[in-house]
Design brief:
21% strand; globular; Nucleotidyltransferase, domain 5; 13 strands; alpha/beta; eight-stranded mixed sheet; 403 residues
């Protein structure tokens, strides 16, 4: 029998499933795609491999199990990566919330699935579809190991002083209400890449801040590969200004909206998650900086305010995390905004020379991997994230460790 070398990565969301296949003998991405509009009339599937793009669609409404069946129908066709299931080593599943139980990826068994179900209340929008992806793949691939890779796991090293909220301690003890942090797979990937590029892999003294700036935004303060603090909290709503999420606010605003505006908790939750952040500030019907930045350049004042608030919050966290780390060696930008928006990176670093942070404008505009000047005290970096590859690596390692 040929050595099993391929890993399938599944990211099952509420209305979509993203999938990627890697040949782990050389970490080559063989295929990538997604199926959308799960639970809605008219599903659509797209995939790409070796320069070939394929689309499929249908008028019916499908659930996650049916979506996975359609994905496997395409993956197992002649000439495609899973044509021979004997090549498939494992399936790695992104799971958003691992609570306090999971500090590392884990091979899935009934106890793990029960724990993921128990965490539905902490991540009601994410863990249920993640779970559906797991059980669907188990049914379709009963002899293939399944591995859960948790968004929260990388932040497990944050100490109590960093994750406790100043509310009655019993709410932490009995209900698990604390800061967990998210985007852990992305922060871990770029921190490892940054350490490699700096030739400081496994250096316990390396002090780094990673900035994952996409539609969702979060930061992490990392010392020697271990997270000291991170900006997201019990949910992905806390922290930085994001595309549609508010980030840090005074919680009394919620009570004010209930009493004075007659809003319900569900209405407020929807507003803070989907109509706030850049979307709410700019008033353009979008939280996409690719549209907000040009509007600001045209003189639209609300778009300008939105950018100023966004950058101001970034700078506050950079300063706070530099203090927490007692110095800084590297500042890393990643994800859609972090990798492509030179103006945002420049704004976030402006005026921070006293912290050793400065950038070279030409390198920044060119999106080079190192955008600080030669000899700068802090190396400022732009590193494309690859969460799917990190999940594949973690999946391989978990299966190897399990024997």
């Amino acid at each position: 029998m040929a050595e099993r070398k391929n890993i399938l990565v599944i990211n099952a969301g509420s209305s979509s499933v993203k999938f990627t296949v890697f040949d782990m003998s050389d970490e080559e991405q063989l295929l990538k795609g997604q199926i959308e509009r799960i639970g809605l009339p008219g599903w659509k599937l797209d995939l790409s491999m070796a320069g070939e793009s394929v689309s499929d669609q249908g008028p019916e409404t499908i659930d996650h199990r049916a979506a996975l069946e359609k994905i496997f129908d395409h993956l197992q066709r002649k000439g495609r990566p899973l044509e021979n299931q004997e090549d498939l080593l494992a399936v790695g599943h992104r799971v958003v919330h691992g609570g306090e139980r999971f500090s590392a990826p884990v091979v899935i068994d009934e106890a793990v699935k029960a724990a993921i179900r128990d965490l539905f209340n902490l991540a009601p929008l994410h863990n249920p579809p993640n779970y559906e992806g797991i059980v669907g793949c188990e049914d379709l691939l009963p002899d293939v190991p399944m591995v859960a890779v948790f968004d929260t796991a990388f932040h497990y090293t944050v100490r109590k002083r960093g994750f406790l909220y100043a509310i009655p301690y019993e709410l932490y003890e009995k209900d698990g209400i604390r800061r967990y942090g998210f985007h852990g797979t992305s922060h871990r990937y770029v921190s490892l890449e940054a350490a490699r590029l700096l030739d400081r892999a496994d250096d316990p003294a390396l002090k780094m801040i990673t900035c994952h700036l996409g539609n969702g935004c979060s930061m992490a303060a990392i010392r020697g590969g271990r997270v000291a603090d991170t900006s997201m909290g019990l949910t992905p709503l806390e922290g930085l200004v994001m595309g549609t999420r508010c980030g840090d606010i005074d919680p009394a605003i919620i009570f004010h909206l209930i009493r004075e505006k007659g809003m319900t908790p569900d209405q407020i939750e929807e507003m803070l998650n989907k109509r706030s952040g850049l979307h709410g500030l700019a008033g353009l019907g979008t939280g996409d900086l690719r549209e907000i930045l040009p509007a600001a350049d045209r003189g639209y004042e609300r778009a300008q305010y939105a950018i100023h608030v966004y950058v101001f919050r970034l700078k506050k966290y950079i300063g706070a995390y530099t203090a927490e780390l007692q110095g800084l060696d590297a500042l890393v930008f990643t994800a859609g905004v972090g990798e492509n928006a030179a103006r945002i990176r420049a704004g976030a670093c402006e005026g921070l020379q006293q912290l050793g942070i400065e950038i070279d404008s030409e390198r920044n505009q060119a999106n080079e991997s190192i955008i600080s000047p030669d000899g700068a005290e802090v190396t400022v970096m732009v590193i494309p994230t690859n969460e799917e590859l990190m999940i594949a690596r973690d999946t391989r390692d978990a299966v190897d460790a399990a024997g």
